[in-house]
């Protein structure tokens, strides 16, 4: 056993059960793989969905798909990354299929196998513990662990920083929200946007909308603390869902005009109805939430007919290899105040981080694993 390939991971053994901190070993690297010592790992709602059984994966498994860390070993075929590089781990994509070649790896033909199978293509697992194989490779990383196995495909080099842990949520949540605005909707300055839900994805969308000089920017969230934070981050209005109303008349009254864009981070019939009713003509509503299963919603074809679009967006339509460096530049320029939405927790306070994410008191918990060195 190579000592540097041992670590501690949060292992899910049964749906509905707690994550158990367990000593694990990363198996021998394949030529295209990397071993990353984790510095920070965000928790995303999709991780909670697995814990609740909404998204089925093989067990036991290590979750976590917003890792940031330092490369400590690389496979023989890895050429673009060096040992010692700081990396943010994002979702996995084959980089070769039609969608990947078009620069839209979120829609990779092999996305399900690469992100949800939690095993290599030959069925082998990347991790083991004292009792046997453990599934790794969740989103090509399984980063709720002090070490993780990833690849060049989903590891994005970022400038070396003592604040590397803060960059972890660029791998999924912040990328999804910010990418939806900057890559999918592409607003011009002065265009109006409403963002439904002020969790991490909504916060990413808000920061991007502020950077893109959208106006007005309306954030809708049931939690007063999140509405307050939205205003501090640059929203022009922050409303509770019942202030919007099903027909969104409350929203239109506040704005005195129409909206060009809506971002739905909730994914329910009620919110999609509100968002579409709030849209001007023409207008685009992006829906982002992963609810699991079919999740049917009904919409008015007549309403859409007037130039309105409802579009689903995965991972912000972004290619992490170009978009994450762009987000890092925005963060360094003060346009992406990640520290305002992130609270860090040492890995041994995992249960507290999960509880505070569930009750909404923390927007984005990031677990930390002992610093850069
Ligand atoms: Zn692909
Ligand atoms: Zn995610």
From TrEMBL:
**Which keywords, in A-to-Z order, does the entry hold?**
Metal-binding, Oxidoreductase, Zinc
| Protein name according to UniProt | NAD(P)-dependent alcohol dehydrogenase
Alphabetized Pfam families for the sequence: ADH_N, ADH_zinc_N
Alphabetized Gene3D superfamilies for the sequence: Medium-chain alcohol dehydrogenases, catalytic domain, NAD(P)-binding Rossmann-like Domain
Domain called Alcohol dehydrogenase-like N-terminal: residue spans: 31-159
Requisite cofactors: Zn(2+)
Q: InterPro entries from the xrefs? A: ADH-like_C, ADH-like_N, ADH_Zn_CS, GroES-like_sf, NAD(P)-bd_dom_sf
The UniProt similarity line reads: Belongs to the zinc-containing alcohol dehydrogenase family.
The Alcohol dehydrogenase-like C-terminal domain, residue ranges: 200-324
Lineage of origin: Bacteria, Pseudomonadati, Myxococcota, Myxococcia, Myxococcales
Highest taxon of the lineage? Bacteria
Q: Does the keyword Translocase apply?
A: no
């Amino acid at each position: 056993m190579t000592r540097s390939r041992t670590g501690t991971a949060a292992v899910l053994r049964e749906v509905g059960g707690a994550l158990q901190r367990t000593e694990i070993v990363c198996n021998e690297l394949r030529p295209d793989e990397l071993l990353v010592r984790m510095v920070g790992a965000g928790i995303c709602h999709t991780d909670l969905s697995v814990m609740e059984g909404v998204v089925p994966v093989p067990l036991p498994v290590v979750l976590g798909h917003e890792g940031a860390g330092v490369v400590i070993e690389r496979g023989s075929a890895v050429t673009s990354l060096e040992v010692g590089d700081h990396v943010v781990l994002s979702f996995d994509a084959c980089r070769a299929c039609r969608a990947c070649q078009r620069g839209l790896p979120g829609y990779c033909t092999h996305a399900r196998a690469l992100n949800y199978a939690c095993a290599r293509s030959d069925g082998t697992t990347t991790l083991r513990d004292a009792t046997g194989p453990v599934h790794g490779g969740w989103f090509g990383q399984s980063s709720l662990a002090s070490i993780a196995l990833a690849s060049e495909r989903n590891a994005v080099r970022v400038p070396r920083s003592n604040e590397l842990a803060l960059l972890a949520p660029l791998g999924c949540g912040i990328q999804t929200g910010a990418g939806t605005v900057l890559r999918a909707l592409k607003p011009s300055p002065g265009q109006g946007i409403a963002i439904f839900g002020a969790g991490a994805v909504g916060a990413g969308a808000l920061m991007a909308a502020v950077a893109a000089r959208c106006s007005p920017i309306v954030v809708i969230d049931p939690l007063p603390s999140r509405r307050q934070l939205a205003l501090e981050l640059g929203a022009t209005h922050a409303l509770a869902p019942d202030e919007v109303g099903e027909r969104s008349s409350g929203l239109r009254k506040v704005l005195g005009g129409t909206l060009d864009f809506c971002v739905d981070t909730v994914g329910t019939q009620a919110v999609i109805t509100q968002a579409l009713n709030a849209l001007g003509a023409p207008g685009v509503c992006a829906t982002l939430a992963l609810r699991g299963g079919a999740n049917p919603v009904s919409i008015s074809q007549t309403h859409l007919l007037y130039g309105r679009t409802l579009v689903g967006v995965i991972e912000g339509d972004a290619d992490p290899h170009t978009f994450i460096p762009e987000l890092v530049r925005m963060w360094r320029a003060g346009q992406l105040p990640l520290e305002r939405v992130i609270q860090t927790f040492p890995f041994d306070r995992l249960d507290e981080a999960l509880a505070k994410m569930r009750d909404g008191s923390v927007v984005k918990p990031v677990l930390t694993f002992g610093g850069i060195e």
